[in-house]
Amino acid sequence: MNEEPRLFVAVPVSEPARAAVAAVVDAIRAGEPEGRGVRWVRLDGLHITLRFLGPTIESSVDAAARAVAAAASGTAPFTIRIAGADAFPPVGRPRTLWLDLDRGADELADLARRLDDALAERGWERERRPFRAHLTLARADGVRAGPATVAALRAAATELAIESPIERVVLFESITGSGRARYIERAQTALG
Fold first, then answer.
1. 36-62, pLDDT tens digit by residue?
2. Kind of pairing, strands 96-103 and 135-139?
3. Roughly what angle, to the nearest 10 degrees, separates helices 105-121 and 61-73?
4. How far apart are CA 187 and CA 32, in angstroms?
5. For residues 99 and 85, is the Cβ–Cβ distance under 8 A?
6. Sheet order of strands, 168-175 included
7. Tens of pLDDT, residues 55-108
8. Quick one: angle between helices 15-30 and 146-156, nearest 10?
9. Which residues are catalytic?
């Protein structure tokens, strides 16, 4: 029995931005204590998620790709700037560690709204949670090392100003199991 593909829609960051983020992550990882720490995401597929679709029947993948194309066509390319860091939740034992944006968040929110509208026209439920543009770096799931890693990330991100052009929207499939998730492009559309 085939499993339904787990889909999400995102905008990838540029290779120079990915390399700059990887350097920050490498520096933090070098200082992490031994033992069970946070689980860092694969940096080769660094992206900002616009919408999780979850398990999707294969016959609906084309409709999702058309929604991505419709949302992208009404948005001109723009630039984001990665600056600052935080965690969800911001106090106590964090579950997710992420980098913030100080430029481009409004454009990403507009794109997420366009995507939500296009998906709703094709039968998906509207997103209930408010959109918060961020670049997920790690999952802490309440581990003891989480708060210390968040503190190190916040300190490392105080001087960040990493720019990345946002030029396309991608429908990804998430492949999980045997390690960190991998992402396969199912469809992509250039902005504009």
1. 688 899 899 899 999 999 999 999 999
2. antiparallel
3. 140
4. 37
5. yes
6. 47-55, 6-12, 168-175, 182-190
7. 999 999 999 999 999 999 989 999 999 999 999 987 778 999 999 999 999 999
8. 130
9. 47, 134
